[in-house]
Design goal:
The chain is mostly beta strands and 387 residues long. The protein is 11% helix and 34% strand. Strands 1-2-3-6-5-4 form a six-stranded antiparallel β-barrel. Strands 7-8-9-12-11-10 form a six-stranded antiparallel β-barrel. The protein is globular.
């Protein structure tokens, strides 16, 4: 089952917004809609549903505003005007991207709280789903519900028994570790119970980016995608097949300058007293997320330096982004038949062959290969391939 569970919904209340849109027609009549949305970066980018921002005439609403709250018992403060960047609303997809600006101005919102994106393709039956939004019956305060992955509809939709009500549309669906894995969109009521439907965040990314964000359908909704380089095969090779010094000097990489022992610039490592999630607190007073346990262990060997703070103090630090792999590790992306070497600054360099891998790491290169979920690929840059 899914690794359990560093999730604390209280940390994400202010990253979820209530959206209100309206249109004034030529005859003076008005039409309005309410929904939810999620900040997905610290520069005011909001993901929501297309049906939240589209009027009954098939055109986007004339005006949209958004509000959030730092406390779960208070209604949102409508501090943001919204500009539509693009949307799709049809039989296959229902999403929209909005840019927040400070209400009454043209100034783009900055330093917004946000929820890091995760990997919706990695969910399996029975995994935990956490929902945040502003349902119409929720008296204008944020509402949390929890359920499980109940199934799938094709490759775009995830079914869940978590509660989703009108107004929650466009809100936040997170995995057990608090990563955004989809957009709550609709619900169906049966004779006894109901099912809700979540758009997979990876399907949305693929629809927008096309070939730049390919999905491995052979490993969809499975835990252990195959690696194209075979570690077991490589471990059987003789040391005689490489030069024994770890890498060839003629390779177009200089380990002394591109793979160094740069320390992670954390002012401290912190965790809340009410959950086990560890964050890197930097000098900008923002906390940075370790997306996976393996990434944490690429920087630290244990938790001896972690300080425990109160939930209130932890909540006072906004999330600043994701921590990248430490340089010197090999990573693979499930849907891409390539293995990359992580170099300084989070640059990925494609290791073009097994021969190159042997030369760089001798015969133990297979011990250094780790999965990099596709949702975090955008945190990295891609450099020159290693030949």
């Amino acid at each position: 089952s899914q690794a359990k569970a560093y999730f604390n919904y209280q940390n994400y209340v202010d990253a979820v917004v209530q959206i209100y849109c309206w249109t004034v027609y030529a005859d003076g009549t008005e039409e309005a809609a309410q929904g939810s949305g999620t900040f997905i970066d610290d520069e005011g980018l909001i993901l929501t549903n297309g049906h939240v921002i589209e009027a009954s005439d098939g055109l986007p609403h004339d005006f949209c505003i958004a509000g959030n709250s730092t406390l779960a018992y208070l209604p949102p403060d409508y501090a943001y005007g919204l500009d539509l960047l693009g949307y799709r609303y049809d039989d296959e997809f229902d999403y929209a991207f909005m840019q927040a600006r400070y209400v009454g101005t043209d100034e783009t919102a900055t330093n917004t709280p946000f929820i890091p994106t995760g990997d919706g393709d990695n969910l399996i039956l029975g995994d935990e789903i956490n929902i945040l939004g502003y349902p119409a019956i929720g008296q204008d305060t944020i509402t949390f519900s929890r359920g499980y992955v109940s199934g799938y509809i094709g490759t775009t939709w995830i079914k869940t028994d978590a509660f989703i009500e009108a107004g929650s549309s466009g809100g936040t669906a997170m995995d057990a570790n608090g990563f955004l894995i989809g957009v709550p969109t609709a619900a169906s009521i049966g004779d006894i119970s109901s099912l809700a439907y979540i758009q997979n965040i990876n399907a949305i990314a693929e629809d927008i980016l096309g070939d730049e964000f390919s999905r491995d359908y052979s490993s969809l909704y499975q835990r252990d995608p195959l690696n194209t380089l075979d570690p077991d095969k490589e471990k059987e090779k003789s040391d005689d097949e490489n030069d024994g010094n770890g890498f060839h000097t003629e390779r177009n990489i200089d380990f002394s300058t591109e793979v160094t022992e740069i320390a992670l610039d954390c002012a401290s490592l912190i965790k809340s007293s009410d959950n086990s999630a560890v964050y890197c607190l930097k000098s900008d007073n923002r906390r940075y997320v370790f997306p996976t346990e393996d990434i944490y262990y690429s920087w630290y060997s244990d938790f001896s330096s972690v300080e425990t703070v109160s939930p209130l103090e932890l909540a006072s630090y906004m999330i600043g982004g994701n921590i990248k792999w430490r340089s010197g590790y090999l990573v693979k992306i499930p849907s891409v038949d390539k293995v990359y070497l992580v170099t300084d600054g989070g640059m990925l360099r494609w290791v073009t062959s097994e021969e190159v891998a042997n030369d760089l790491f001798e015969n133990d290169w297979a011990d250094y290969i780790y999965d990099l979920p596709e949702a975090f690929f955008i945190d990295y840059s891609v450099g020159q391939a290693i030949f």
